[in-house]
């Protein structure tokens, strides 16, 4: 299983970014897919999760209304559209795929929100 994130970068407060995660080596449509983030010195935290087939979507409270998770099973892709970014959203963002007790992480992509 391989998960590769892309789309991170430097953005000004109030700006937007779209993160992408390409999955390979797995039956993607069967996996629940999530985005996590981590800042130095803190634990990795869940940001958003989308179940297999997109039947269920959940967000951590502080991104609700700003972030949107989506998936394209035909392309083995999961996305995180991030709008109205604040400096507090600065972190390394990780893609995570899970099926039952099995899970795999991507290498992460840095998002920096700064003026």
What does this entry look like structurally?
The protein has 115 residues and is an all-beta fold. It contains no helices and eleven strands. Strands 2, 4, 5, 6, 9, 10 and 11 form a seven-stranded mixed β-sheet that branches. Strands 1-3-8-7 form a four-stranded antiparallel β-sheet, with no helix packed on it. A hairpin with a 6-residue loop joins strand 4 and strand 5 (45-50). It is globular and about 40 Å long. The mean pLDDT is 96.
Outline of this structure?
With 115 residues, the protein is mostly beta strands. It is built from no helices and eleven strands. It is globular and about 40 Å long.
Quaternary organization? single chain
Structural class: mainly beta
Give the beta-strand count: 11
- General shape: globular
Helix content: under 10%
Please outline the major beta sheet. Answer: 7 strands, mixed
Mean pLDDT: 96
Strand content: over 45%
Using the CA coordinates, give the radius of gyration.
Answer: 13 Å
Figure out the total of helices: 0
Distance between termini? 37 Å
Encode the helix/strand succession as letters: EEEEEEEEEEE
- Would you identify the regions where 5 or more consecutive residues have pLDDT less than 50? none
């Amino acid at each position: 299983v391989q998960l590769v994130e892309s789309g991170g970068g430097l953005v000004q407060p109030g700006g937007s970014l779209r993160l992408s995660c390409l999955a390979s080596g797995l039956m993607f449509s069967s996996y629940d897919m999530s985005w996590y983030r981590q800042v130095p010195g803190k634990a990795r935290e869940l940001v958003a999760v989308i179940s297999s087939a997109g039947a269920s979507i959940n967000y951590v409270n502080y991104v609700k209304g700003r972030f949107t998770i989506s998936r394209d099973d035909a392309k083995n892709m999961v996305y995180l559209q991030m709008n109205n970014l604040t400096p507090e959203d600065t972190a390394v963002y990780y893609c995570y795929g899970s099926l039952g007790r099995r899970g795999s992480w991507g290498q992460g992509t840095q998002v920096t929100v700064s003026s």
